[in-house]
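Why does residue order matter? Because the sequence determines the fold. Keep that principle in mind as you read this record.
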Amino acid sequence: MNRILIIEDELSMRLGLRFTLEDAGYDVCVAETGEQGMDIISREVFDVIVTDFRLPGYNGIEILEKVKEISPSTCVIVITAFAEIENAVKAIKLGAFDYIQKPLDPSKLIEMIDRFLSGTHKSNKSTCCDAGKQPSSGNFGILGQSRAVGRIFDFISASAKSDSSVMIFGESGTGKELVANAIHLMSKRCDSNIIKINSASIPEELLEAELCGYEKGAFTGAFQQKKGKLELAHEGTFFFDEIGDMPFNMQTKLLRIIENKSFERLGGNKEIYIDTRFVFATRMNISELISAGRFREDLFYRINVLTISLPPLRDRREDILTIAEHYATEFSKKLGKSVPDFSEEFKEFLSGYDFPGNIRELKHLMENIITFCDGGTVFVRNIPSDILNRHDRTVDTVGNSQLDYNIKEIEKSTILDALNRFLWRKSEAAKYLGISRATLWRKMKELGIERA
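Structure:
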């Protein structure tokens, strides 16, 4: 089933288009503002995006440019008013598939979409589906120019040539979903859907129905048959986010589905076979979950084929300033402001702060600063107080750790001097130090002091 995103601020048109396209057999997602649309585009992949030109937040041209940056194969159709033909022409020059004027004729829009999906787009998709083609830094929304980012792109390029399961490890906010998107878009499966599910966000009792679908009458409220997400991912990619949170009972069923490439809908007895590439991600330590009896070891070995651990932002600090400047430009453009300069003190803060929320935290920080900053330069005083306080606590902790280390080194040196002075006669050394012999023994053990 082809996926379509509608970005339209007028409620009646948005709902009308949604119902019309769903009746035509499409899987439809909607956004009310340009900002919502941008957020969805950065997280999900669509075959077609239909966007109004004039929107709150980003306009149609900005949305088109973003789509072409992260998903060149996606069809973009721009909705324009009669007086905006020049804008429509500009959109076509920038890569839009077509435009449609208001008042909008739904049948004409469906004809455009069908024309794109029937084959006109195939040549355009070659830029995306050239499996293994080496991307440049910044593609697919992955920002940075460090060696770590280069290794991520190398992994994406190699993984795209394979159909093996992928396991992406990384803290929250490190870009695991972006990597999954990139692998799909560079693979031979990019003409089909990438379907996503977050194992932590769906209650256990609903997860199987969400994955496998159900037949009419399978349970109270099942008034019609519904295909599951696995079925929608046929010939495409299925992305399991936060697989470490999957309930243990469901892990057994997932293992069987992966091994057999088939499943049954709830309430059904027909085996449904799928040709799907699986990508998994987690913020957790799966080995610890296995030891705790919370994750099946056989499932882990089944899915842990091609693996990558995404580094936290604190481990690639050379990318922080580049990413901050990127988001400063993006949010300034959105708010109609000039892009501010960064003061030296602000740059020092960026390079010294650990960003426990990783890239997501940095993005939100820049959005906050650009929203409230009135001047042409960003200073440390523009940083929200909660982040400054967190940074101060981190610095204090590091300082205390260094102090503890120094004290222990002094203590060790003092004890060694006393032991050597009295030829390692511990009773005399303890008396000299003013401590009991038992205390001396304990200190020697703690500090790793042994006679050579």
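The longest helix spans residues 385-421.
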